[in-house]
Amino acid sequence: MLEIRDLRVAVDGKDILTGLDLRVAPGEVHAIMGPNGSGKSTLAHVLAGRDGYEVTGGEILFEGRPLLDLAPEERACAGLFLAFQYPVEIPGVNNTYFLKAAVNAIRKHRGEPELDAMDFLALVREKLAVLHMDESLLKRGVNVGFSGGEKKRNEIFQLAIMEPRLAILDETDSGLDIDALKDVAKGVNALRSPERAIILVTHYQRLLDHIVPDRVHVLSGGRIATSGGQDLALELESRGYEWVREAAAGA
Amino acid sequence: MGAGGGGRGMNGAAASAARYAEAFARREPALPGHDLAWLRDVRRAAADAFSRSGFPTPRNEHWKYTNVAPIEKRAFDLDGAGAAPRAAPGNGASGTLPGGNGTSGAFLDGGGAPRLVIVDGRLDPGLSNLEALPPGVTVEDFPRALERDAAFFESLLARIVRPEKTAFAALNTAFMDTGAVVRAAPGAVADAPVHLVFVSGAEGRERAYSPRIVIAAGAGARIAVVEHFLGLDGAVYLDNVVTEIDVAEDAAVEHYKVQQAGAAAYHVAALEARLARGASFHSWAVSLGGRLSRHDIDVTLDHEHARCSLDGLYMANGRQHTDFHTNVEHVAPHCASHEYYKGIAGGRGRGVFNGRVHVHPHAQKTEAHQTNRNLLLSRNAEIDTKPQLEIHADDVKCSHGATIGQLDEQMLFYLRARGIAESAARGMLTYGFARDVVERIARPGLRGPIGAAVLGHLPGGGDLREILQ
Residue A156 belongs to what H/E stretch? Predict the structure, then answer.
């Protein structure tokens, strides 16, 4: 589904990713962990197509097609979804209108008929219940006046509505209390399927108690220093990131 | 700038003034109310004031950013409506009206509200509908009202908007020959807004129109009036509008202005409201059309407990130029004014906002707040904003804020990352910026059609209809 080969990315002339390789197959859940500044969020943003990142080498294939040539909206239509670490507030654009426009843009791209108001509302209500979100949030501007937890729930709510092929969750667990974390995990676990892949970008292990990954990778110095199963995450939790850095430096 | 006065040759200015003077001399004997001595004096004084001043140049501080030389250079036809009714647009006239299938499709009232329609300076009884007026409210076209009750105008006409105030007000006062008069008796309450619709440019002539609008609300009356200016896109013409509003004690007037002049047209409008004790005035204005447009909105609060709110939205695309000048005079204590204006400029469009608030020495306990936010959509667009607060009393609450920005890149990326094409995302964010101004329209029935008109002027706005819901 996703194949990243020797990816090198610089921001303002500074190398952030220095030769990253990653393969994610359909049905898999991968966790990308690492200390602050290791390039986790850079990877998430480059995958989604954000400006300001200079790809200096390597390539990314998404379902066999070169991803880097696509505009952000084309990536979304192709089935890639980024749950933002810091979802932006958009005053004046109603949440319901935005969601419907997004869902229908993607459906149109896939050659599916657009959802009418009734079908859309039914879909929305079902997903709201899973995430314990109040319907009144839909009437507000996108993320406007949402608490930190509500913003994160809203990201997973959008993920549930859009049903992408590949979901990338950028630090979705940061700033969440335990109830919100459980709701978010429930929303994500409900989406696990043999056709869909999920990448969890996270600093902490605790999210992985609730969304159990198939593979865990540790980023250090702009590349993947080590990979393993869930045990690796537990080891990081008890030993910290320093030993990975040392191990990588010694390798 | 050349030495000849804001880049214009003095000969050109003199020739232009002479042409207006000749036209006035020729038309004066037949202008509405020509048999009234007081009105003759008013018109002559106004014509003289214009002859002395000529059109303003950018050296005049009030016109620094808006050069009206293109208006001065045009030899507009000043002869007024001809003897016979002209064909209404959609009845054989070339060109199209914004937002409409023919004339009635362009109206904002959906067909049911009371409306007075003036096509090319002449009342169109067929398109007008004044049957649904509530008791105590009268709506007439200006010449007819003057004929029927001249005494009403003597203490009012040209007393609120003084002709010497601007050259355009003087010109309008000299030539005023069309327009509308809305009067509400004391205590009268109108639930539905009265629509005054002006359609310009349907004739082939390059005309200058001088409509005069008078709105008078008696004590305790509550009315809403919509001024809607439409024009044919191919037509070159000048709307030179003056609106005088008299709000008696404890009365409330809501005034909506929708400027959808034709793309090649010039639109200049001066509005002033006079408020008695406890009166309230709400102005909501949107400037969408026209090659060059200018709105002057003035409110004098010289009786206690009067309050006004002034809201507006101006949009300039292509090579459009639009200018809003507001002026609130806080003369009496215990009055409040709130201003909320937003501007959007794209292409090589140019917007100007100048908001003056003058708190006089005795106007203690004044509350005056002004906000002006602007959005630039392109590198070549320009907006000049100037909040101007002059506060001479010490026990007041005043604030102002002016900003100019661009579309937020993070918001744009967020929308695109959800599959929304860049052009649609820009349209959504642009309407999102304007939306809170539209939501300040107090009448839900007007919000929809005016929102649609605003959306219709956004690049790609036609694809975003559902955003209005």
Answer: helix A148-162
Best residue of B418, B420, B454, B465 to probe chain A, by most A CBs closer than 10 Å: B418
Three-point CA angle B316, B318, B319, nearest 5°: 80
Inter-chain contact A102–B419, Cβ cutoff 8 Å?
yes
Give the pair of three-digit tokens for residue B269: 């409008």
pLDDT number for residue A34? 87
**B419 interfacial to chain A (CB closer than 8 Å):** yes
Tell me B84's DSSP state.
S
d(CA B152, CA B235): 36
Could you tell me the two tokens for A174?
């940061």
Q: Which residues of chain A have a Cβ shorter than 8 Å from any chain B Cβ? A: 48-51, 71-73, 75-77, 81-82, 84, 87-88, 90-94, 97-98, 100-102, 105-106, 109, 141-142, 158, 162
Confidence of residue A235 (pLDDT cuts 50, 70, 90): confident
The structural domains of chain A, with segments of one domain joined by +, span 2-250
Task: Pick the residue from chain A with its C-alpha nearest to B435.
Answer: A92
Alpha-helix residue ranges (DSSP H) falling in B54-109? 69-73
| Token pair of B411 as six digits | 């918001």
Share of chain B above pLDDT 70, in %: 92
The partner residues of A141 in beta bridges, in order of sequence, read A94
Of B416, B424, B432, the CB nearest to A71: B416
Three-class SS string for A173-239?
CCCCCHHHHHHHHHHHHHHCCCCCEEEEEECCCHHHHHCCCCEEEEEECCEEEEEECHHHHHHHHHH
Task: Give the confidence band of B81 by pLDDT, cuts at 50, 70, 90.
Answer: confident
Question: pLDDT band for position B91 (50/70/90)?
Answer: very low
Q: What is the mean pLDDT of residues B399-427?
A: 96
Contacts of A140 in chain B (CB under 8 A): none
Which residue of B lies nearest to A78 if distances are taken between CA atoms? B419
Q: How many CA atoms lie within 13 Å of B440's alpha carbon, on the beta-carbon side? A: 22
Contact residues on chain B for A84, CB-CB shorter than 8 A: 414, 417
- Residue B469 per-residue DSSP state: -
Question: In this complex, which of A92, A94, A97 lies closest to B436 when CB atoms are compared?
Answer: A92
**Whether A232 contacts A220, CB under 8 Å:** no
CATH of A2-250, one of 3.20.20.370, 3.40.50.2300, 3.40.50.300, 3.40.1640.10: 3.40.50.300
- Is residue B89 over pLDDT 60? no
Closest residue of chain A to B414, computed from CA coordinates = A88
Strands across the sheet containing A65-66: A14-24, A2-11, A54-62, A65-66
Taking the Cβ of residue B433 and every Cβ of chain A, the question of whether any pair is shorter than 8 Å is answered with yes
| Partner residue opposite B414 with nearest CB, options A51, A77, A90 | A90
More confident residue, B464 or B298: B298
A72·B408 Cβ contact <8 A: no
Answer whether B417 sits within 8 Å of A48, measured CB to CB. Answer: yes
pLDDT of B98 over the 80 cut: no
Nearest to A88 among B414, B432, B466 (CB): B414
ipTM: 0.95
Which residue of chain A has the CA closest to B426? A93
State pLDDT tens for residues A180-211: 898 889 889 999 999 999 999 998 888 888 99
Query: Distance from first CA to last CA of chain B, Å, rounded?
Result: 49
The confidence score (pLDDT) of residue B105 equals 59
**A32-46, B29-43, B73-87, B449-463 — most confident range:** B29-43
- Cβ(B208)–Cβ(B265) under 8 Å? no
CA distance A175 to chain B (A): 20
